[in-house]
């Protein structure tokens, strides 16, 4: 299935305000409501587009880690799928010839962190090496979607779509009773208030009020998942970067401004920066590494690990067996 400029513009619009009505998208994009609805359905079925409500755990001060698990050749896939079923994991991919699993995980308690990092994973016989990098600071990613760097929408169009700023300066910490609402948003971030009411059992006014609090405070943001190759972005890779300590912040900020970088963060561990690189092909990867990244002052070492298979983005569905 082929996608065109209008599809990319709609994707960018979703990233700006994923819960906006189709009529608003249509007005900004200069097409009919029916065209927007039809294109959105096509993107869902043909490019795996899905709007997902995400709790911004770093904003709440919760621990987040990125794990590199070197496995025996026959075990990487099963281990990746097992981790994908956990509610405390998000991005999971296979790299390095299919023997390395890279997994992002967050822990709300020290006990939960230790159970995974010091208990379950080290006891798994087919995992032969574990590297754990703790997230320290996010330079780009999370609420800042990568499609914003595409330029598909003009600055004026983005301004017309951007929702009004929330009235909350500090994050609103989710409560246990918020879980049905959060689960419904993970399933469909564009679900209407009426649909959320049906799924949670709360009144529409209560749902609307809590939704405004969680989203308006930045505790929850709406992320757009999609299949990159469908839009011509056929190669993704993880970058493990060591920068001089005095250049850590400047290199991280530079990465955040690069068109090819979808996520960048400072981490503690064997390296001090990690980033997600998205390119059209291997030639573009080479140009980025040798020219853009290679010329940054303060970069001392770079490891580039192409992603062979993405097992989980923010949500996971078991593969269907024919």
From TrEMBL:
Assigned GO CC terms: cytosol
Residue ranges constituting the HTH asnC-type domain according to the UniProt record: 4-44, 180-214
Keywords: DNA-binding, Transcription, Transcription regulation
UniProt key word Glycoprotein: no
UniProt-listed GO biological process terms: response to amino acid
Sample GO molecular function, one term: sequence-specific DNA binding
Domain Transcription regulator AsnC/Lrp ligand binding: 240-309
Superkingdom of the source species: Bacteria
InterPro entries registered for this protein in UniProt: AsnC-type_HTH_dom, Dimeric_a/b-barrel, Tscrpt_reg_AsnC-like, Tscrpt_reg_AsnC/Lrp_C, WH-like_DNA-bd_sf, WH_DNA-bd_sf
Protein name, as recorded: AsnC family protein
